[in-house]
Amino acid sequence: MRSVAGEVFLLQLAVVVLLVAAAVVALVVQARSAGMVDARHRTLAAAGTFAESPGIVAALRSPHPSAALQPSAEAARKIAGVDGINVYTLSGVTLAHSDPRQIGKHVVGPFSKAAAGQSFTETFEGSLGQSVVSVVPVKDSDGRVIAIVSSPVTVQNVQSMVNRQLPVVLGSAAAVLALSAGGTALVSRRLLRRTHGLGPAEMTRMYEHHDAVLHAVREGVLIIGGGGRLLLANDEARRLLRLPVDAEGLTVTDLGLEEGIAEPIASGRSATDELHMATDRLLSVNIRPTAPYGQAGTVVTLRDTTELRALSGRAEVARERLKLLYDAGVRVGTTLNVERTAEELAEVAVPRFADVVTVDLLDPVLRGEEPTEASTEMRRTAAVGLQGDHPLYPVGELIRFVPTSPMAAGLADGRAVLEADLRVTHGWRTQDPANALRILDRGIHSLIAVPLRARGVVLGMAGYWRGQDSPPFDEEDVSFAEELTARAALAVDNARRYTREHTMAVTLQRSLLPRGVPEQSAVEVAHRYLAAQAGVGGDWFDVIPLPGTRVALVVGDVVGHGLHAAATMGRLRTAVYNFSTLDLPPDELLSHLDELVAHIDTDEQEWQGITGATCLCAIYDPVSGQVTAATAGHPGPALVRPDGTVSLPEVPISPPLGLGEGLPMETMTVTLPEGSRLALFTDGLIESRDRDPDAGLAALRAALAGPARTPEETCTAVIDAMLPTRPSDDVALLVARTRRLDPARIAEWDVRPDPAAVSPVRNACARRLADWGLEEIAFTTELILSELMTNAIRYGTEPIRVRLLYDRSLICEVSDGSSTSPHLRRAEATDEGGRGLFLVAQFAERWGTRYTARGKIIWSEQALLDGAAPPAMDLGEALLAGWDDEGF
């Protein structure tokens, strides 16, 4: 009922009901009016007929008129169908009546007109109710009125006749109403289909929109039906296509359109923003099918883009420039490499802005330094867009631009220089006249030279060249080139600063990492260090010779990258080396290192944060073949035995450095056969983003497996198998193959705690030195051993033992069970002793003390040159050196 069809149905039904009701009322009123008229005519006819009937005068003049008249009057009443035929004398006496009881009574009525000889009919209220009565006079032969005849009919009787007709009237009205409602419903249903159930407001809005589309919309609209017939065209479409007035109903091919616009309109295919010419206008055409929204066909919209063509071209250029700037922000400066950043600037601008782009940078910029002053001497760093034997300077060439060149002018003014047409300008040709002609011959005709400036410092120049069919540069291009170059200059400056910092960090790291492996006889060593992709890291390794032909193998890792990691690595490496000079076991060495890292964290926590560092220290003794290892949060070593089997000894792992909180470190001791290989490494070798540590250890075991490999070959095999590409974290790898000291070069004696026992041992040592061919240093060796044994007997405890080790140097060791350490000092003039250690220091190349689990060892080393000792210091000079001039 909310639709237009529903409202029309209700309105039509109401009209039909009103019409039928009016007709029924009119019929009833008319029937009642006709009944009253009929009653008047009937009563008048009945009264007149009885008054003129023959014998009525004789009956009136008979002795008993009522007896003669009453039967005749009753018979006449029934025949006439009236309520009564009454006869009255002129005096009002009733002679005959429909009610015999009224005969003889005197009545008063409106009979004066009848007494005067007139007949009349009127309505009155009688004993029978409201009635219609007709009165007719009875005249004799002489024309005198002798009596009066009246014939009444009650209104009720008249209405009863009408009421008998009322069912027929109402039935007919109901039938008419039903037929009318059915017809109205059929019409409304058809209207519902035609209006698609739309309501009045929607229909109004639809027709308003229809009128707007036809007359107000400034976009052409065509509706094409089946067979390519034009069904509708709005005013704008008529204007754009210049359609005739009677265009609607014609086929598209009959509209007189140009073939270029008629073909797509008549094709029926879908199209989006296709450009077609219609007369002198460039139209944007969109075509869509009307199904399922209407009958099969298409709707075509036309938009005049003639005036917008030039604006859209400029807008497209601006859009492309914005996209180019965006791409430059994404693509330039991705590597923090100065040369690559310059190449990225050239690559992003060719060919979208220029045909050829060259980038020239100052030499200090390439080294990571900040230029101190602007210079016209630059190095060609990037050139993109050149093909074949090009005339421009090649990459890598040092160019000194002349003052008249655009590059020098831009450098001097600090702004871009535009050479719109190189063919008509001559200043740039003075750089190289012959080459300038070659440039013009290659079709290059326009140039913009823009300084690469960042933070107020000129880093170089960018040259944008156009040639062939490209249009020359204009002022808008200059603004864009400056914006593009300014963004690239920041990336170049960032790369330059990174290069400087990276160079500093690499220099620092290289100065802190070991430059080579010291000479020693305990192990054969090979090593690898691979920097991470992020640059400088904190991994390190060390091979530290120790007294007694022993060697310390150290590998460590400082978390992070950069200067701080490298500096921390250097501090830890120096600390490890210094702690090693104290001849500490691995656990004590790492304990001291843990305290140092904790101290570093305390000093630097406010600005740098907590240092993350791990370390593995292993000491190998070639005399016993034992290796003692301790680790602070670091992976343990891998052991490759001479037969090629690989194992991972379980080294008790302590917390990383700085987190030990003073707890003691634990060690592992294992005896290795000669020719075993120890592999010490950092976690970057076995861990990566796509490999967990367990898989890395399995791969390491597979890479290490196999006998008869040198440490160098082992390092190569491990790196090739584990790190085919540059690692994401630093990697340090140290491989050491163990050696054993020849037992023939080891001599040991027990010494009784008696000064008399010194001489026999000293003589035995001299004989052993003679066996080794070291007679030339026998005297100084006896002197050193005499002093050391005497001190051990005097100040130490049992057991006292002497050992000689013949390696790259001669090592004398005197051990005892005391932990008291001797100290070298200059004796006073009045001292009777205290000069023995001074003599040891004078004759030995090095000497020192190391502690063991059962005491201490005092050792000394004497250098050997081609199997012989250097000329010894005169004994007298050595003794005199113990006093100064004031001692005499």
TrEMBL record:
GO cellular component terms listed in the entry, alphabetical order: plasma membrane
One GO MF term: kinase activity
Domain GAF: 333-502
Leader sequence residues: none
E.C. no: 3.1.3.16
Localization of this protein: Cell membrane
Catalytic activity field: O-phospho-L-seryl-[protein] + H2O = L-seryl-[protein] + phosphate
Bilayer topology term: Multi-pass membrane protein
Bilayer-spanning residue ranges: 166-187
Domain (PPM-type phosphatase) ranges: 520-738
Principal subcellular localization: membrane
Keyword annotations from UniProtKB, A to Z: ATP-binding, Cell membrane, Hydrolase, Kinase, Magnesium, Manganese, Membrane, Metal-binding, Nucleotide-binding, Phosphoprotein, Protein phosphatase, Transferase, Transmembrane, Transmembrane helix
Matching InterPro entries: Bact_Sigma-Reg, GAF, GAF-like_dom_sf, HATPase_C_sf, HATPase_dom, PPM-type-like_dom_sf, PPM-type_phosphatase-like_dom, sCache_3
Task of the protein: Primarily acts as an independent SigF regulator that is sensitive to the osmosensory signal, mediating the cross talk of PknD with the SigF regulon. Possesses both phosphatase and kinase activities. The kinase domain functions as a classic anti-sigma factor-like kinase to phosphorylate the anti-anti-sigma factor domain at the canonical regulatory site, and the phosphatase domain antagonizes this activity.
PANTHER family: STAGE II SPORULATION PROTEIN E (PTHR43156:SF2), STAGE II SPORULATION PROTEIN E-RELATED (PTHR43156)
Protein's UniProt name: protein-serine/threonine phosphatase
Source species: Streptomyces nymphaeiformis
